[in-house]
Amino acid sequence: MDISTEDIAHILEAIDKLDCSMVEVSVGDVRIMVRRGSAGDAPPVMEASTPAAAITVPQAAAAPKTAATPKPASVSAPARADDLAIWLEREAQGTALVLRAPMIGTFYCSKAPGEPPFVEVGSPVQVGDTLGLMEVMKLFHSLVAEVNGSVGAVFAQNAQLVEFDQPVFAIAKS
Fold first, then answer.
1. In this structure, is residue 74 part of a structural domain?
2. What local confidence, expressed as pLDDT, does residue 144 receive?
3. Of the residues 28, 52, 59, 117, which has the maximum number of CB atoms within 10 A of its CB?
4. What whole-number distance in Å separates Cα of residue 10 and Cα of residue 131?
5. What is the pLDDT of residue 151?
6. Angle CA(93)–CA(98)–CA(102) in degrees, nearest 5?
7. Which residues span the domain enclosing 155?
8. Please, which pLDDT band fits residue 38 given cuts at 50, 70 and 90?
9. Would residue 159 count as lying in a domain?
């Protein structure tokens, strides 16, 4: 039995409404396991048995309707590792936020090939503004600003595979 991405989205919506710490759903050879972590308000974790992967599912995952996977767009080079240390220090002081990848997937800076990036260093952002996209198993999830401010750094390259909790953006709070 085949399960569509819409079916998975409906299953995850239903699971999100449940008041439990772990749920496992099996449909044919597809297994979805969702665990809510104890790390505060961290989103639930979804594991798929085919292919083997562990990803985090955001509470409000918006999937744009695109016919093809976005290809690399020309954007500025990502921030250096020593820049990350500066932004982590600023985050500890409360003047910045380092936005991390909420799941394992491919990062895209624009909604389609040849389109301008959602944001660049220096772009002003408001809570809820789309900063980039994460592709996981052919589903797209928006990375959104969690604070008002301006983009201070971009740590991931377009079309780069990023790990769970990997820093992707730094936002200087306003």
1. no
2. 95
3. 117
4. 25
5. 95
6. 140
7. 81-173
8. very low
9. yes
